[in-house]
Design a protein that fits this description.
about 300 residues, alpha/beta, N-(1-d-carboxylethyl)-l-norvaline Dehydrogenase, domain 2, 2 domains, five-stranded mixed sheet, 11 strands, globular
Length: about 300
């Protein structure tokens, strides 16, 4: 999605991965709230090749957590070859450190949006509000400024880590929502969904405090604002009960494609952080234990059924 929009903004984009699409010459369709567009002319390379990146003035790393965690340092060095800045979006900071990218080249960031890809060559930007949050660099506006035409707010910060920690807490809800084959608004429209979300987020905030990890307010998708609404204005979520929604989380998209590689990663990672800080979690651990449920017994029929299974 991000590569397609940047190409549409006038940048020459090469997408690098372990494989290439079955039909690389076919335009990619990107749907966004203002309409849709066909992105033609994208280039594709396998990760073992560097022919198209020798003169690249920037590299964007948007690998999934399980892919980045499995990557070897020499392979990462080849992917990020060059002298330009490397922007790492939605990555686990511990994996970034392991890959030993020179600090002067690294800029961490977040893509705060909902992008749905259920089939090759078709991506839907389903969020009504989106933001690209990235650590300051002279090239930020040149590279990303034109994304404002597609509804993105570009936010530059000095240190992305507190924002990454906040987004990590927000993502704790992805697994329980996916287990019920729902989107987050539909999940929170049910009292049992709201109760489970509060339990998961409360544990997250206590864990971050005990572990000494700073948090910062996100421009969109902020977990503290969400928890505040859940506690003080629960009825405000009822309006989503009968409203169609396509904001599928990344975990649900993986389930729908028959992949469960990182289903429990976020909730399990919080349990590990809590354990290191001498704290025992209940709700996040129980949810993580249910990650394999879909493959064996199918989705839960409702948030109520999921909550009963956890109590």
């Amino acid at each position: 999605m991000l590569g397609g929009l940047l190409h549409q903004c006038g940048h020459e984009v090469t997408l690098v991965g372990r494989g290439t699409p079955a039909h690389p010459a076919r335009p990619v369709r990107v749907t966004h709230p203002a309409g849709w567009l066909a992105v033609d002319g994208l280039r594709y390379e396998r990760s073992g090749s560097t022919t198209g990146r020798a003169g690249a003035d920037a590299c964007l790393v948007t690998l999934g957590r399980h892919h980045l965690r499995a990557m070897r340092r020499p392979d990462f060095a080849r992917v990020t070859a060059g002298e330009g800045p490397v922007f790492l979006f939605n990555c686990d900071p511990t994996d970034i450190q392991r890959l030993a990218l020179p600090p002067q080249r690294m800029r961490r960031g977040l893509t705060l949006t909902s992008a749905v890809k259920l089939q090759e060559g078709d991506v839907e930007l389903s969020a009504s509000q989106s933001a690209l949050l990235v650590e300051r660099h002279p090239d930020c506006q040149r590279l990303f400024g034109a994304l404002g035409a597609y509804g993105f707010e570009i936010v530059e910060v000095d240190d992305a880590l507190p924002f990454m920690s906040s987004f990590f807490l927000y993502q704790l809800l992805f697994l329980p929502v996916a287990l019920c084959n729902l989107t987050l608004p539909a999940f929170l429209a049910v009292p049992e969904g709201r109760e489970l979300a509060k339990n998961l987020l409360r544990e997250g905030f206590v864990t971050m405090e005990k572990a000494g990890l700073a948090l910062a307010a996100l421009p969109v998708m902020d977990p503290r604002e969400l928890l505040g609404r859940l506690e003080k204005k629960p009825s405000s979520f009822d309006v989503a009960r009968d409203r169609p929604d396509r904001a599928y989380s990344s975990v649900l998209q993986a389930y729908l494609r028959g992949r469960q590689t990182e289903a429990a990663h976020l909730n399990r990672r919080l349990v590990e952080i809590a354990s290191s800080a001498g704290q025992r979690l209940v709700w996040n651990w129980r949810v993580a234990q249910k990650a394999g449920r879909v493959a064996g017994a199918g989705f839960y029929r409702s948030p109520e059924e999921l909550l009963r299974s956890l109590e």
